[in-house]
């Protein structure tokens, strides 16, 4: 369950060396030996959506890897069945998972291992993307998050090796590790539904041996995955952040802080594999209610605006499309009257504060504007998730939002596709999806005590 496992045509593999690991064999700390039996933590399992409206803090003082993330999620209270069910949906042959309570020094933690029996094929990014897309047992939100994480990882390796994205290959057993780590982590994070905040990631220096020879630390793919993520010098010569761990944090963290303002409710520890001399090798996850120093809501988002009076409708429309493709949460155009009575437009995008600078540069590149206004704003959101419901013509994703009573809305584009593919009126598909969504809501109400 180490992190990056990328290879180019069977070459570069991160699976052959240890990723910030921590060996639990032999040494003792504070009277505890890693060889003795450690009981499972006595804490309640966290139900689906237990993190909605809460903050999940990645306290990555010893770095982060995919296996450490899954282990910490399970120690936090995410049921192992959530991880196992997501991995089972992939249909990977000869793969089994092991969750084991261990001690990291004097700290109780969970260690996660992926066991692989028999030979495994080398898989290209295109093949892995198709594997995840075709896993019908995966929740749509899990599938989408896993694809986002894998894309970031594959784009980094593509740039490192100067090769086409689709041809980037994951190497044999290492490919299985990366697939399991990313899909398992995505399943655990979607199960919680919390807003993720991460500490700055500590990076070790030195070198690591791999199939391409000696590479500097942080690994080249790790450094590229961390674009936009705060990092700091760990002061030791060892790999602490793996490519997979970097891709996970970069894809899910909405903000970064040494410690956010929150009221802790649950804590989980995920053990690494190698022993570190100067710190316990573990990832700590803290789930809690966000708290601010004042009554004012946090300024978590930015409005990016540019006044334009010299662009065509086609250019403005393409700018909106490009902004949405590149990560804007929303984008729109409003007609206005500008100086000297000239008609014009205001191009506006909503983004996280983290993406504000990058998307402002995109506006300056895609339009004639010579400036972009940035206004920090807060945003209040209702909890939401996506579930699949069955219709006579196939499954339809349904967006479920709000607090009880919940609201459900079938995905319109999927209904249109099914209407075209099956040759049935769109209104019939929409009606069937709406009925199935209402049945799902009735079941959710029945399983939620006190729900109206």
Describe this entry's structure for a reader.
The chain contains eleven helices and 23 strands. The protein is an alpha+beta fold and 452 residues long. The chain has three domains: 6-25 and 41-290, no CATH class; 301-377, Alpha-Beta Plaits (2-Layer Sandwich), CATH 3.30.70.1380; 384-447, Roll (Ubiquitin-like (UB roll)), CATH 3.10.20. The strands form eight sheets. A five-stranded mixed sheet has the order 14-9-4-16-15. A four-stranded antiparallel sheet has the order 18-19-17-20, with helices on one face. It has a three-stranded antiparallel sheet with strand order 1-8-7. The two termini are 43 Å apart.
Q: Which SSEs are present, and which pair or pack?
A:
Layout: E1 6-7, E2 28-29, E3 32-33, E4 55-59, H1 66-76, H2 80-89, E5 95-104, E6 107-116, E7 123-124, H3 125-133, H4 140-161, E8 169-170, H5 172-192, E9 195-198, E10 201-203, E11 207-210, E12 213-216, H6 220-225, E13 231-233, H7 243-252, E14 253-256, E15 262-271, E16 282-290, E17 301-308, H8 313-325, E18 330-337, E19 343-352, H9 356-366, E20 373-377, E21 384-391, E22 394-401, E23 407-410, H10 412-422, H11 426-447
Parallel strand pairs: 4-9, 9-14, 10-13
Antiparallel strand pairs: 1-8, 2-3, 4-16, 5-6, 7-8, 11-12, 15-16, 17-19, 17-20, 18-19, 21-22, 22-23
Helix pairs in contact: 1-5, 2-5, 3-4, 4-5, 4-7, 8-9, 10-11
């Amino acid at each position: 369950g180490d992190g990056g496992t990328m290879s180019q045509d069977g070459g570069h593999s991160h699976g052959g060396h240890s990723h910030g690991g921590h060996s639990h064999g032999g040494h003792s700390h504070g009277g505890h030996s890693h060889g003795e039996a450690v009981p499972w933590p006595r804490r309640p399992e966290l139900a689906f959506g237990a993190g909605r409206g809460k903050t999940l803090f990645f306290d990555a003082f010893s770095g982060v890897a995919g296996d450490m993330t899954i282990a910490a999620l399970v120690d936090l209270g995410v049921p192992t069945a959530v991880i196992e069910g997501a991995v089972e949906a992939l249909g990977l042959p000869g793969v089994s998972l092991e969750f084991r309570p261990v001690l990291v020094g004097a700290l109780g933690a969970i260690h996660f291992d992926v066991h692989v029996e028999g030979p495994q094929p080398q898989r290209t990014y295109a093949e892995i993307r198709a594997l995840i897309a075709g896993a019908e047992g995966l929740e749509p939100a899990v599938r989408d998050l896993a694809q986002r994480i894998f894309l970031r990882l594959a784009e980094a390796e593509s740039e490192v090796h100067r090769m086409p994205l689709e041809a980037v290959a994951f190497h044999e057993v290492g490919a299985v590790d990366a697939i399991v780590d990313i899909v398992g982590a995505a399943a655990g994070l979607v199960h919680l539904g919390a807003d993720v905040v991460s500490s700055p990631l500590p990076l070790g220096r030195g070198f690591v041996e791999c199939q391409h020879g000696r590479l500097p630390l942080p690994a080249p793919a790790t450094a590229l995955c961390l674009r936009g993520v705060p990092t700091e010098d760990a002061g030791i010569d060892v790999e602490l952040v793996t490519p997979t761990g970097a891709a996970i944090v970069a894809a899910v963290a909405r903000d970064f802080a040494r410690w956010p303002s929150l009221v802790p409710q649950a804590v989980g520890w995920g053990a690494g594999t190698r022993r570190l001399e100067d710190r316990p090798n573990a990832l700590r996850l803290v789930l809690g209610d966000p708290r601010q120093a004042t009554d004012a809501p946090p300024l978590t988002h930015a409005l990016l605006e540019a006044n334009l009076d010299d662009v065509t409708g086609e250019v403005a429309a393409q700018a909106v499309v490009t902004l949405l493709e590149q990560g804007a949460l929303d984008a729109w155009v409003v007609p206005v009257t500008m100086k000297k009575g000239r008609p014009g437009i205001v191009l506006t995008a909503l983004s996280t504060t983290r993406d504000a600078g990058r998307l402002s540069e995109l506006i300056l590149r895609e339009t004639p504007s010579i400036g972009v206004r940035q206004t920090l704003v807060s945003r209040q959101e209702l909890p939401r998730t996506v579930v699949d419901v069955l219709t006579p013509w196939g499954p339809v994703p349904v967006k479920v939002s709000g607090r009880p009573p919940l609201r459900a809305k079938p995905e319109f584009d999927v209904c249109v596709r099914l209407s075209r593919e099956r040759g049935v009126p769109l209104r019939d598909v929409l009606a069937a999806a709406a009925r199935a969504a209402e049945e799902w809501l009735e079941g959710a109400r029945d399983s939620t005590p006190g729900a109206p």
